[in-house]
Structure formats: structure tokens, C-alpha cells
Specification:
Strand content: under 5%
Largest sheet: none
Number of helices: 5
GO cellular component, one term: plasma membrane
InterPro entries: PhaG_MnhG_YufB
Order of helices and strands: HHHHH
Shape: elongated
Subcellular location: Membrane
Structural class: mainly alpha
Number of strands: 0
GO molecular function: sodium:proton antiporter activity
Main location: membrane
Length: 163
């Protein structure tokens, strides 16, 4: 086995690991019911899968055909920088709009990755929850512990329980 075959094997392994990470990401997006958990599955593992796949492609073409692709390197850099930021901004928008957030107190046996939330919500429910979160955040930033704890108790009572 010469060096070219070993590096090609490493590139193939990187592409295979990237494909497995993409499959895990797709399963996570389908399996999770919460907006925040879905976004976590989408951004973290998809970023890893694309980076592994493109790195494997870059190494393969560099070794077998002696082709140095600047486009592939720029794509890797671009995805590495923009994907986490985009995921963060999407989650921030979902949080500010009042989307339901997974909390372990609502499960029957502690934390569970098989948690499913099937309650239908209206825009009015989300708007009301977003306003309460905003008031709670303002009380926290002003260091008003009494108001913050009051809103925190109201938020716990307002959240639905698991059937």
C-alpha cells in the first residue's frame, strides 16, 4: 500500500463519516418536535457532515489528480463561518416569537430525547409567551430579582404538561 492509497482511504473515510453525520442530522430533524431541538440537530450535525464531506473531496482530488481546488477551500471556510451564525439567528427569532421550548420538568422520567409535543398553538399563545419572556428578560437585566422570580413562576404555570 503506497501513500496515495492510504490518503485516498482517509478521504473515503471522511466522506463516509460525513454521510453518516448527515443521516443522523436528518433523523434528528424528523424525530424532534421542538423548534429548538430541531435547529440544534440541523445546524450542528449538518455543519459537521458538510465539512467532513468537503474535506474528504478536497483531499481525494488533491492526492489522486493533483488538483488544488480553491473553491472547495472557500466553501469549507464559508460554511464553517456562516452556518452556526445562521442557526443562532433562526433560534433567536423563534425564541423572540414565543415558540414552545422543551423543558425537562414536563417529562415523566426526567430528560428524554423521545419527547414529543403535539399541542396545537395559536399565534396568540406564542405572542403572549413572547411578551412574558421579554418582561422576564428585562427584569433580569435590571437585576430586579423579585419581579424576575415572579415572571419565572408565571412562566412555569403557563407551560403545558405532558399527558
Amino acid at each position: 500500500m503506497n501513500l496515495s492509497e492510504i490518503v485516498s482511504l482517509i478521504a473515503a473515510l471522511s466522506i463516509l463519516l460525513g454521510s453518516i453525520a448527515a443521516l443522523i442530522s436528518a433523523i434528528g430533524i424528523v424525530r424532534f418536535r421542538d423548534t429548538f431541538l430541531r435547529s440544534h440537530a440541523a445546524t450542528k450535525s449538518s455543519t459537521l457532515s458538510v465539512l467532513l464531506t468537503l474535506t474528504g473531496v478536497f483531499i481525494y482530488f488533491l492526492v489522486t489528480q493533483e488538483y488544488f481546488s480553491v473553491r472547495t477551500l472557500l466553501t469549507i471556510l464559508f460554511l464553517y463561518l456562516t452556518s452556526p451564525v445562521a442557526g443562532h439567528m433562526i433560534i433567536r427569532a423563534a425564541y423572540n416569537s414565543g415558540s414552545y421550548m422543551y423543558m425537562k420538568e414536563f417529562t415523566k422520567k426526567g430528560t428524554s430525547l423521545n419527547f414529543r409535543y403535539d399541542r396545537k398553538e395559536t399565534k396568540k399563545d406564542r405572542r403572549r409567551r413572547a411578551e412574558k419572556r421579554q418582561m422576564m428578560n428585562e427584569a433580569f437585566s435590571k437585576n430586579d430579582k423579585e419581579t424576575f422570580s415572579k415572571y419565572k413562576q408565571v412562566m412555569k404555570k403557563d407551560e403545558p404538561t405532558l399527558k
